[in-house]
Write a structure and sequence with these properties.
The chain is an alpha+beta fold and about 325 residues long. The chain has a 6-stranded antiparallel beta barrel with strand order 1-8-11-10-9-12. It has a 4-stranded antiparallel beta sheet with strand order 5-4-2-7. A hairpin with a 7-residue loop joins strand 9 and strand 10.
């Protein structure tokens, strides 16, 4: 009896030891080929206002499903419409001023052309009068012409000089007037360009006062209330996109060789312990997580302590539709080879 009991105890102890050894080996193997440093990931699009305004109406609530292009918020546009009306009125006035300036400019160009023609005429008169003056002066000295004839010729010559000087003065005045007219026309054109640009900005602000969803997904982190003043660039929502999700797993560097691109893995999600998901390794991070830390480690200080690094790995779901229906970004995941 004692012998049988002793034999049973020996067999029991050996069996228990084998089970324990098997469990330890299996646990060691599993730990070498899995990680719980993983979570569901997805694209989250920030919704930013692109103009200033008061929130007139909010069309969505947190966790509501929206499609790309759906209206989320309407900002008040009364001020923009009033400014647009003023800008369009100013533009009309500037266009009228430009038309008037161009008419004046054309008139000044004609005046300049006439002034130049007058100078040519007076230059010819002066040349002719100068010849007569010089000839009659010689003839007067010889007694061929009378003093009265010479004095008349001299007076005509002096008058021709004065006429040419007046014509040159008139041309200079005309050129100044032409320059002023050109400046006035250019100023009107500049005003028109500025006002047209202002009108486009106001139209853009009116358009951007309707805040649209940048993507299809779920509204999250609403931070705007009806009547609230928001500034351009303010984030008022986040859209958790539902088009695609994946798993980001941070494997130890010693595990990376077991998870090459294309490797199939099993995914266990804490939120759904009874559901099974499978995925495929799509990409392996180009650097370890520590390289993107705010203060990267510096191993050149002489105080080096070796720490196993972790490498981010992107895993895509085999059944993406099922994953999109059940999972949300941020869920914890266990990844097993």
């Amino acid at each position: 009896m004692k012998s049988n009991t002793r034999t049973f105890l020996i067999i029991f102890i050996i069996t228990l030891s084998l089970i324990l050894i098997y469990w330890l080996i299996l646990s060691f193997y599993n730990n070498k080929n899995r990680t719980d440093d993983a979570m569901v990931d997805g694209d989250i699009a920030p919704v930013l206002t692109r103009t200033d305004g008061f929130a007139e109406k909010i069309y969505v609530e947190d966790n509501q499903l929206v499609n790309k292009g759906d209206t989320l918020v309407q900002l008040d546009t009364i001020d923009y419409h009033l400014q647009l009306l003023q800008a369009e009125t100013a533009l009309h006035i500037s266009k009228t001023n430009l038309e008037r300036s161009l008419i004046v400019l054309d008139s000044k160009k004609i005046d300049e052309k006439i002034a130049k023609q007058q100078i040519q005429i007076h230059e010819s008169d002066l040349a002719y009068s100068e010849i007569n003056y010089k000839r009659n002066k010689v003839l007067k000295d010889k007694g061929v012409v009378s003093v009265q004839v010479f004095e008349f010729t001299e007076e005509t010559y002096k008058k021709a000089i004065l006429n040419l000087e007046n014509a040159n003065d008139k041309l200079r005045q005309t050129e100044v007037g032409l320059l002023d007219a050109e400046k006035e026309a250019e100023l009107s054109k500049l005003n028109i360009a500025t006002q047209q640009n202002q009108i486009e900005i106001l139209k853009r602000n009116i358009l951007f006062s309707t805040v649209l969803s940048p993507a299809t997904g779920y509204v999250s982190k609403r931070s705007v209330q009806t009547g609230q003043m928001v500034r351009s660039g303010t984030q008022i929502f986040s859209i958790v996109q539902s088009d695609n999700i994946w798993v980001t797993a941070n494997f130890k560097e010693t595990q990376i060789s077991k998870f090459p691109i294309g490797q199939k893995v099993k995914l266990k999600v804490d939120a759904y312990p009874d559901e099974e998901f499978f995925g495929i390794v799509e990409t392996v991070g180009a650097a370890t997580g520590s390289k993107f830390a705010l203060v990267p480690p510096d191993n050149a200080t002489g105080n080096y302590v070796k720490v196993i690094q972790r490498v981010p790995v992107k895993i895509i779901f085999e059944d993406l539709q099922k994953a999109k229906e059940l999972l949300r970004p941020g869920f914890s995941v266990m990844v097993t080879l």
